[in-house]
Specification:
Layout: H1 3-18, H2 23-45, H3 49-58, H4 75-101
Length: 108
């Protein structure tokens, strides 16, 4: 994993987590971000089988609302989806920091 890519991705996740929102809009944005960042991390880790296995076990793909649109959904369900995505994103940022801390990246 390239250090610059890891740091930029971690920073992008943290920036997403700083955004405030509520309801369906927040659920849509956070669940979309969860899927996008999960894919980006998987692409970075694909050349390291041990890291990829660890990442896949910690952050398996999540089931998404059909159509991915939380508009019109029950507010409790939308809030739960937003909280779940926020928690996963926070964990992914922490996992990336762990990769940085353990020097499992190529300095470039």
């Amino acid at each position: 994993m390239n250090v610059g890519s890891v740091i930029r991705l971690k920073s992008a996740i943290e920036g997403t987590l700083r955004e405030e929102g509520s309801g369906a809009t927040s659920a849509d944005a956070l669940t979309d971000a969860d899927a996008r960042f999960r894919q980006a991390i998987a692409e970075l880790a694909r050349d390291d089988a041990a890291l990829m296995t660890e990442f896949e076990s910690l952050y398996p793909p999540t089931k998404r609302k059909p159509g991915g649109d939380w508009a019109g959904a029950d507010m409790v369900d939308a809030a739960a989806a937003a909280k779940s995505a926020r928690t996963r994103l926070s964990g992914m940022a922490g996992w990336l920091q762990g990769v940085i801390d353990t020097n499992q990246i190529v300095l470039s």
